[in-house]
Specification:
- The chain folds into two domains: 92 residues, Phosphohistidine domain (Glucose Oxidase, domain 1, 3-Layer(bba) Sandwich); 269 residues, Aldolase class I (TIM Barrel, Alpha-Beta Barrel), CATH 3.20.20.
- The protein has twelve helices and 16 strands.
- The protein has a seven-stranded mixed beta barrel. The chain has a seven-stranded parallel β-sheet with strand order 8-9-10-11-12-13-14, with helices on one face.
């Protein structure tokens, strides 16, 4: 989700549309936002808005045309045809809501949440405005959609039936897209709501649930809500009753890394229906940054615990992955399951990574890692056969 500052003119509200760098037929232009350095009158007529990198005084003066105009203060070279953009005149911001070339697209369902996680990278906003109308329109503009799409927040299930409606829209417009709902599963303790979720009928819907500990005390402390553990476990079992595919996500921090093997054992004994278990590194921004002294642990320090937990689940034929970790802090035995999982728009590498032979395979860092990252980052250098013989 890239953002670009801009100056806006003639907007009466936010505008959502597909990016167009080539001329679109007039009957389709209302769905498009023209992008270019300059534009003639016939190019602008009928478009939802126009974005330019120069100030076109002559066109701006033709108020009868009424085309909302945004002047970008930065390069827009990364925006491609059919990306979906939102222009917000109040914030004077252009946001890419859908990047057609990316593998990490998501719909931000809501900024509200029913938890207060100690390491949340995007703290919830109780007073956040609803996104439903924008998101329903976004789904229409995305169609036929990407290979995969996440529904995220905040906590999406807070929207109740509005979330079900969004999933139904995805079923109609994007039935071939793999849809991943990210949730803490607390609301899914309500069996009737899980029934509605399943009845939405998207053929490729799966649910990724956050689980941070094998004990009520530790999980609830991390989630910031008493009773969250019981509700999450009940929600997981309700999903299993409806045979909805379940992924379990574990963010590793100082408060839980010593119990990773016990958590793995708990998952196998109580949640063996899970189709995927993911061990995740922290994104050190938002609430996580505020609590860094309390929750930070160098990923290198929990290599043993991570290896043992992964081996335990692998030996029991459970599918596992590692997200948000650099290869140089992960035991080599686990490299095959370390994924490039960080969204491309916030994925960075340190200068020292330029010397590494494995940079192309490595997941790299969140942009926030500039603030805090492992002290054991080092380039991996493999000598070629020629070098070895010399």
């Amino acid at each position: 989700m890239q953002e670009f500052q801009c100056k806006t003119f003639r907007f009466t509200g936010s505008v959502l549309g597909k990016a167009a760098r080539k001329t679109i037929k007039k009957k389709y232009r209302s769905n498009y936002i023209w992008i270019g350095d300059k534009a003639s009158d016939h190019r602008l007529e009928g478009y939802a808005a126009a974005i330019m990198c120069e100030f076109p005084k002559r066109i701006l003066g033709q108020k009868s045309k009424g085309i909302p105009l945004a002047i970008s203060t930065s390069s827009l070279n990364e925006i491609e045809n059919d990306d979906v953009l939102l222009i917000d005149p109040q914030k004077e911001l252009i946001t890419t809501l859908y990047d057609k070339s990316s593998n990490h697209n998501a719909i931000f369902v809501t900024a509200r949440c029913n938890c207060a996680c100690i390491m949340c990278p995007q703290p919830p906003r109780p007073d956040a405005e609803g996104q439903n109308d924008i998101n329903k329109r976004l789904i229409q503009l995305m169609a036929p959609g990407p290979d995969s799409l996440a529904l995220t927040g905040g906590e999406p299930t807070i929207l109740g039936n509005e979330l079900i409606s969004l999933i139904e829209d995805c079923r109609v417009k994007m039935p071939e897209t793999r849809l991943l709902l990210l949730t803490n599963a607390r609301k899914l303790k309500d069996l009737s709501y899980v029934d509605s979720l399943a009845s939405a009928g998207h053929p490729k819907l799966s649910v990724a649930v956050s689980l941070y500990a094998d004990t009520e005390e530790e999980h609830d402390e991390i989630m910031g809500v008493k009773g969250a553990f019981k509700e999450t476990i009940q929600g997981l079992h309700n999903l299993a009753l409806y045979e909805l595919p379940v992924e379990i996500r574990i963010v590793i921090m100082s408060m839980n890394y010593m119990r990773l093997i016990k958590l793995a054992d708990f998952i196998y004994r109580n949640l063996a229906f899970a189709c995927h278990v993911v061990f995740m590194g922290m994104e050190t921004c938002g609430t996580a940054q505020e609590n860094l002294d309390r929750i930070w642990v160098d990923p290198y320090e929990y290599r043993k615990e991570l290896l043992e937990a992964c081996k335990f689940l692998n030996q029991r034929s459970m599918l596992i992955s590692i997200y948000n970790h650099e290869l140089c802090v992960v035991p080599e035995d686990l490299w095959p399951i370390a994924r490039k999982s960080i969204s491309d728009w916030k994925n960075v590498y340190l200068d020292v990574c330029d010397e590494c032979n494995l940079k192309g395979q490595c997941g790299g860092f969140f942009a926030s890692a500039i603030i805090k990252h492992s002290t054991h980052i080092c380039p991996h250098k493999i000598k070629s056969e020629v070098d070895g013989a010399s």
